[in-house]
Amino acid sequence: MAAILPLPTRSAALARLTQFLPQAGRAYTTGRNIDTGPGVRESVSGLSPWIRHRVITEEQVLRAVLTRHTQSQAARFIEEVCWRSYFKGYLESRPSIWSDYRRMVVGSFSHLPRCQAAMEGRTGIDCFDAWVAELKTTGYLHNHARMCFASIWIFTLELPWQLGADFTLRHFIDGDAASNTLSWRWVAGLHTPGKNYLAKPAAIERCSNGRFAPQGLVEQAAALQEVALHPLMAVPPLATAATPGALPPGRIALLLTEEDLHPESLGLHGAPLVGVASASAVAARSALPVSALACDFVSGAMDDALARAGAHFDVPAERLVALDGDAIAEWAQRIGAEVVLTAVAPVGPVEEALRDAADWLTMQRLPLVQLRREWDAMLWPLATRGFFDLREQIPRVIAELDLERDRPAQNQLPF
């Protein structure tokens, strides 16, 4: 199949957002579950690779959508954007889910030979094998396909869910620790204990516009169970740029990671920045090789963000060889910085790398300060239970962030 890959730039993200805006209301609501296959999908936004890496932020996307649609008209799309924040907040409040998953992936490597046929698309299940080919070629799957893929992997093929989650995280260009891990747990019946998701042949045929007619799927299976308990923890408080005294004193080195690639909107206007650098942890998604598509998208998006940041803040910009304490400290000391500042990294590989780096930076008398976006500060603490508790608060969040403004002249994007 011919791969249609998104360009890893903000200009490409804004172009796609502009193209999608007319469909964000009723068209999205009625057509979002239809998966027409690889290529241009008019029924879904296709924005996930850029939103996941915050080349464009959730707030910016919803502000644009609400210039064209009311909250009621775009309710389903708004909710889907908020699902990502829900998953991030949920994992922040239960970080042991991620650490247990990391251990269980490595502990399941002995089962990799059993997974080879599935990972190579040789199961004989038409939809599953096509999805494997699509995933490897494009780095993307429609949301309904993702759920059915996970269900077939777990309940029909009876393979370890952790290896399936690792497989998709390694290949998705929008691969995200929270969304990927918790979606697989939701399908397995672990996120909502006892409630699993079983892929139905009729639903797959309908949602694929008749492209597939899978045979032999398990249609009755008990939810998976786990022994581990994941206690609820308070989301650690972190300052936003709007918090009085949030910006640290002294000369600041701004560090970009793949978790947040729109530094222009971090609220750093007037801050004493002396340089900006980027460093990636994309290879740390797994102990197994991460796909070239995922690595290339992250690399391109970081280069684009680095160039924008250097020009926006009028400071030197460079790419670090690694996201570790040695590389960060050498750079920060060389440019005369007194503190390293970065956007908050949610639970996942980047957060793990920064946690390790922070200890070394402290020894070098270079504090590492993380800033949380106001969007995250508002939504993450709401994600301690089911999504619908958070959903009830969406109108309040929209109002407090003033996202629903009058349409700009000639429908120009408000950013």
Structure report:
With 415 residues, this protein is mainly α. The chain folds into three domains: 10-89 and 384-411, Serine Threonine Protein Phosphatase 5, Tetratricopeptide repeat (Alpha Horseshoe), CATH 1.25.40; 95-207, DNA Cyclobutane Dipyrimidine Photolyase, subunit A, domain 3, CATH 1.10.579.10; 252-373, HUPs (Rossmann fold, 3-Layer(aba) Sandwich). 46% of the residues lie in helices and 6% in strands. It has 18 helices and five strands. It has a five-stranded parallel β-sheet with strand order 3-2-1-4-5, with helices on both faces. Helix 9 (143-156) crosses helix 11 (177-188), helix 10 (161-171) packs antiparallel against helix 11 and helix 14 packs across helix 15 (349-363). The longest helix is centred in the last third of the chain and has 22 residues, at 292-313. It is globular, with a radius of gyration of 21 Å. The mean pLDDT is 94.
Short précis:
With 415 residues, the chain is mainly alpha-helical. It has helices spanning 10-20, 26-31, 48-52, 58-65, 75-93, 96-107, 112-119, 126-138, 143-156, 161-171, 177-188, 201-207, 292-313, 325-334, 349-363, 374-379, 387-391, 394-400, and strands spanning 252-256, 273-278, 317-319, 339-343, 368-371. Helix 5 packs across helix 11 and helix 14 crosses helix 15 (349-363).
